[in-house]
Amino acid sequence: MSATSQNPEALLDPGTAPAAPRWTRYVAIGDSFSEGLWDPYPNLDDVQRGWADRLASTLSERRTAAGEPALEYANLAIRGRLLPQIIAEQLDVALVMKPDLVSIVGGGNDILRPGVDLETITGALEDAVAKIRATGADVLMGTGFKAGGTLAWTNSRVGVFNANVWSIARRHDAHVLDLWGMRSLFDLRVWSADRIHLLPEGHERVKNAALTGLGLPPDDAAWDEPLPAGPALTRIAVLRENAAWAREHVGPWVKRRVTGRSSGDGRTPKWPSTSHWPPTA
């Protein structure tokens, strides 16, 4: 929700038809999280969907159901990008499209790096938010999520990052996608094998969190209910899974860092303009 106010639409009964969202053109900028890794479109090859595309679809469907034109949408996010790169490469391109809603969600790749300067990257984020708000567009930022297990060491950094995000939102009347507060994300079953990207169910739940953050009713009132309890893993099974994760995902990530490469090298945005969306087979 906005840091300073709650949209009355959020108070609608979940069973009633939502009013048409006021936004007409939405542009998402960010990294792999907004690109939508591990949430492939069922009818497209090598194109990921993710929470931002799902959000755009929901906003568009609600607009057309209320007799308004469909939402225009572009997604400039590219995997592997650091927050300063997102701002430098994607922000001005997004603003040229004259959106009235921009989501800028990033920082996770920065937080994983040993020498990250949280105050510097959140200062750059605030400058970007101020630049977007100066155009009259609304902004949706995202907090970092609370990690467990092998990634729990990041939580102290994420906590500082999140505090700054909420302060930026308050100062600039921006909206926040509160990933830290999502109970359902504590379950590894919504995460891919690499433990840093969501599976389709996770992206759907985050989409509903984004709707809530925008002051709109979610599609599913139970969007953040924990998953049903699953079978408990033995200690040996946990150790095996951790070893496989380190071998298959941590090792290649470290190698890319050492060689100065990124998973996003050579990639271009999947929906670089509103004319490329909605997707077709």
Automatic annotation (TrEMBL):
Region (Disordered): 256-281
Keyword Hydrolase (UniProt): yes
SGNH hydrolase-type esterase domain segment(s): 28-205
Compositional bias annotation for Polar residues: 271-281
Classification via Gene3D superfamilies: SGNH hydrolase
Keyword field: Hydrolase
InterPro entries referenced in this protein's UniProt entry, alphabetically: GDSL_Rv0518-like, SGNH_hydro, SGNH_hydro_sf
One term of GO molecular function: hydrolase activity
The protein, known as: SGNH/GDSL hydrolase family protein
Taxonomic source organism: Myceligenerans crystallogenes
